[in-house]
Give the backbone structure.
Amino acid sequence: MKEEIILSGRLNDRIDPILNAWHSEIPIYLFLGGLAAGLLFFAALFFILGKEKEYSTAVKFAPFIAPLGISIGLIALLLDLTNPLYFWKLYTSFRIESPMSWGAWVLMFVTPLSMIWCLIYLKEFFGLFGEKFKKISDLIFDIKIVNLTIEIAKKQQKVIAWILLLSSVVLGVYTGILLSAFNARPLWNTSILGPLFLVSGFSTAAASIIWMAKDHKERILFSKIDLALILVELFLIVHLFMGFMASSQAQIDAANLFLGGEFTISFWLFVVILGLILPAFLETLELKGFKIPVAIPVLLVLIGGLIFRFVMVEAGQVSNYIY
Amino acid sequence: MKTSRRDFIKISSLSLGGILAINPLLNMAMDSDDNLQDDNKIKQFPTYCEVCFWKCAGWVHTKNDKIWKITGNKEDQHSNGRFCPRGTGGVGMYYDNDRLKKPLKRVEKNGKQTFVEITWDEAFNFIADKLQKIKKKYGAECVALFTHGSGGKFWGHLLKAYGSRNISAPSYSQCRGPREAGFIATYGKGIGSPEPLDIKNTKCMVLIGSHLGENMHNGQVQEMSQALEKGASLITVDPRYSTVASKSKFWLPIKPATDIALLLAWIHEIIYKEYYDKKYVEKYTYGFEDLKVHVKNFTPEWAYGKTTIKPDIIRKTAKEMSNASPSVIINPGRHVTWYGDDTQRLRCVAILNALLGSYGKKGGIYSPEKYKVPKFPSEKYIKPKRDWRQAFPGKFKLAKLALASGICDATILSAERDCSFKGWIVNGTNLITTLPNQANTLKAIKSLELLVVIDTMPTEITGYADIVLPECTYLERYDMLRVAKHRKPAIALRMPVTEPLYDSKPGWWMARELGLKMGLKEYFKYENITELLDWQLKKIGSSLEEMKKIGVKTFERKEPLFYGEDEEIEFNTNTGKIELYSTVIEEIGFDPMPKYLAHPEPEEGFYRLNYGRAPMHTFGRTANNPNLFDLMEENNLWVNPKVAKEWDLKTGQEVWLKNQDGVIGSNSIKVRVTERIRWDSVYLVHGFGSTSNKLSRAYKKGLSDSELITNIMMDPLMGGTGMRGNFVTFLLKEPKNNKL
Amino acid sequence: MRYAMVIDTKKCVGCSDCVVACQTENNVPIGYCRDWVVESLKGRYPNLEIEIRSERCNHCTNSPCVRCCPTGASHYEKGGIVKVTQNECIGCSACIQSCPYDARYTHPDGWVDKCTFCIHRVKEGLKTACVSVCPTNCMYFGDLDDENSEVSKLLIKRKFKVLAAEAGTKPNVFYLI
Ligand SMILES: Nc1nc2c(c(=O)[nH]1)N[C@H]1C(S)=C(S)[C@@H](COP(=O)(O)OP(=O)(O)OC[C@H]3O[C@@H](n4cnc5c(=O)[nH]c(N)nc54)[C@H](O)[C@@H]3O)O[C@H]1N2
Ligand SMILES: Nc1nc2c(c(=O)[nH]1)N[C@H]1C(S)=C(S)[C@@H](COP(=O)(O)OP(=O)(O)OC[C@H]3O[C@@H](n4cnc5c(=O)[nH]c(N)nc54)[C@H](O)[C@@H]3O)O[C@H]1N2
Ligand code: SF4
Ligand code: SF4
Ligand code: SF4
Ligand code: SF4
Ligand code: SF4
Ligand SMILES: [Mo]
């Protein structure tokens, strides 16, 4: 028999008996960050490709979710800080090796950029809602600086688009790297997490665009994109587990949390089957011409993506090298 | 109103302080780590520790006049500058907000008994009045003191002045009594405390049930580690894989209750293999030939049948000891009231030490010295006509001190006795959990006319008191000088660090005030204890002022630490020799040489109740201490995996225990399935499972072994209460009507 | 200079004095701890073996907690001591996640706390509180770059291990086995 016990100490709140330092705020933050990254990526991409008109939802309207999402995400992050009054310290230095620092700065960069992007389409956006927002719209466009910004932005939109394209990829990857940088948690200690979170974030973005798009062609395109992303995601997940099983005992133990362990159902049922396979199936049917209420696969993808992040954050904290 | 400039500064700096405390953004200069050593705010005061009875001397450090930490005094031989966890955690005694705060008196209100707070004056008037009545009606001898710890000096003095000599301590009859009796019978001198064992120089130490390292007697643990470092070997005899067993070269997992068989086999082996120190035995001992004949048949093979220890291990360990002789210690242990034949078991230990010539030798047992501090002048005590012994005619003749359990028994009204005890003063001992057989203790308490309890915490015993007197903790008071024996004679001072919290008071003050109320002024010819201490210290060339600075003063020895080569020594026994054959024990009608007796074993489905210490607690006295509670909240029940399998028990599962007499423990306990315990026993740490709901942390945490110790195996030689003959079985569901 | 702690598991009795001493010395709030004691038992009665270890932050040479800290609150001090500056810590818990030993915790006041190798004492030439109190004298503190230091000598003389070596953090707390 082998017995390992803590004789004394180790009773720190949120650390023992199992690590519980991050709560729901972090997965929400990661989810919204990934979603925003995807939305901005698609907007920039299709603008650069000159498809602003054809894919107007992706380029013009869906990006409006991004600054909103990022802001809520940031608030969530702020709520999870145990010393939030010092949050500004994040911006007194840049720590090149710290994903948190990267994240803070990328968001600092992307947020205003995404707002400027939205500003460009603000008039059209208000237009979507008819007379309702006329008054506010008029008020905003009376402000000189707003018009000036829009003017400059419009002139430089190509440059902005390129910067957005790149920074959104950084943001997307970052949501995964934030976890995978922590070698201390065997479950997170894998380079696949970066691409996986990126793809998953883009998939949630594609799904949102499908939902918002009125144009059939745009829907079809994003359904295809989403389908492809889901397939890549599934492929990465298989790789993730193959990697774990070929690795150290700690990582095998980590993988086992999903293979019979306490996260098996939440992962395989809610993330993989309901969040990936089922929506992929429904989207395929739709592409084949079947009538499927568009909200269903979209919601499945979004909820699946959210649960995925919850599961990864929780299970990661359970997986451990010692004891 | 005029505000002076000084006031103005005070107010504004205060409000700035307020902002600093609230707003962390302004708090930047206050990194606490860098602030710790700000010399201006740090002070230190000498003390000696009261968390157990090793009495280590140390320093109490304050930061901004608040008690911060306690460390050891480097000059002190008990601590060598290092406190044990309990001593380090002593700060928690002071900060424990469950402390007793005011004198309490039991009254009846609407047919129900409750405590009401009273003034000190009322308390003393009440007690003085009751004591005088008892004296008049039954005689002063019908009052007894139970005490443990420093305050005993003052209460003992008061009791003797009042006219009774019945001063008892469970730390004798429930603890080291048999050891003292066994050694006095052999060497004419007891072991005493702290034990004069030259552990740091030993080459081999044998621990018989003594679980050093869990039993955290500071100096001994420190020296054991030093000895290990120098390559000494340990031989540990314990049915449980104790911590020290894991450090030992030999662990002998003995069948419980059979130690005497092993000890006799060792004696046999050492004599018949001629391992013994011939010169020493010849020069200093009496009765060797008798002993040789006596142990003739106690061979290792014979012992194997009793102890389950293989003969070759018995032989090897006997050889190991003799190789180290005379630098070998057969450790006498301390809590030795196990099976009722304890004095005889400790006689074996004493004999082994003599055979190996370790008594009085380097690496063995040294001769400790104590400094003579003159007594403060006081009226002579009256000699009482009777004492506790009259209650036990012809019995327990080897008892040197009053038996706490004996006084308890003699309190219960009985037709055979012409008189019984009527009043108890209980200072710093929790008799409910300390004496075995609780029902008996409660019965005794019912027969009392007065029960006064002096304590710091609302422990079980306080709940039965007529008057509870709240003592301040040792950090808030003076006590008598610590005048302990050691390698070098030394004294230590305890002084208050702050004013006592609440309305608690030091023991010396209480005893004196009560003495004055009882008209015993001639016994308390000092206004304040500082006067007494300073008088004593000046007599020996020091002063209170000096001691406040140094805490500990060490003096040179008068005699050598060890016996010289061939030195003539007169032992304080009938024969003047170390008595392998005890003439005293023969005189009182018992075996002059120890014999093995088989003891009862558990029936099917029952397990022997084994108990011991955890290094971070002292009995129940620390159970509610916030710092130490943090280290260990409750005890667990150690169960061997085989037993666990049979009963389908899992680690962490709650069980209830029932003993051989049908007594069920009042609380549950969580199982720890572990290979560290034998399959015929279960083990738990003593001191948990408090039933006093005033202890907000300790209440109902774990299980009290005391509740389940109803079978007492009385030592006929000195009256020690053997407590290891109790057997328990598991109840997997909470029993109905489980009320004690 | 490279400060290190060497702990002799053969002498440690698991008394947890190191835990209380740290608590009082460093005002670690009740209910929290910077160090802790582990007992590890192997075998079957009566062939048993116990290893007892007093554990704490390992002041890793390659410490992920310093790397991942976004504000620089977690940093190296002279001698490689890893320390948190309280008023630069935002409490993002990244360092808690990054430590394979779970050596860090969130102080009730918000910042993240852990063993400091008693830097305030070391600066004054004292040993750490836990080392100074240990009744079995089984803990040693010193400079590994000084080959004459007690710690250097012990690591030459005795067999030792570090915890979770596979995590690659290069711990500076060593266990004699
Ligand atoms: N931390 C801490 N230290 C303490 C105390 C404390 O409360 N806490 N109390 C102090 C006091 S007052 C005392 S008296 C001492 C007591 O300390 P010891 O003298 O060491 O105490 P015991 O209770 O006799 O020893 C308990 C050990 O005896 C073993 N044992 C049980 N039955 C048998 C048996 O039949 N044969 C043998 N050979 N061994 C057996 C148990 O398994 C256990 O390991 O500790 C002192 N030190
Ligand atoms: N079942 C069982 N019974 C045992 C033992 C066992 O292991 N198991 N061990 C036996 C042994 S070895 C011994 S030595 C005895 C010890 O038993 P006790 O003599 O009862 O010793 P403690 O439990 O330390 O006594 C504690 C009481 O002293 C109080 N106290 C603490 N500090 C102070 C103070 O400064 N002033 C005053 N006035 N009171 C204070 C505490 O609050 C508590 O009520 O128990 C014996 N009884
Ligand atoms: S051994 Fe520990 S509890 Fe006992 S007096 Fe010394 S420091 Fe205090
Ligand atoms: S103080 Fe020393 S002996 Fe006690 S647990 Fe800590 S390291 Fe071990
Ligand atoms: S033990 Fe943990 S907290 Fe300490 S330096 Fe290493 S990684 Fe950082
Ligand atoms: S919690 Fe504090 S110390 Fe830890 S990484 Fe965040 S800012 Fe740095
Ligand atoms: S070195 Fe200091 S801070 Fe670290 S565990 Fe020891 S006492 Fe605590
Ligand atoms: Mo004792």
Notes: Residues C 57-60, 63-65, 82, 99, 101, 103-104, 114, 169 surround iron/sulfur cluster (ligand 5) (CB under 6 Å).
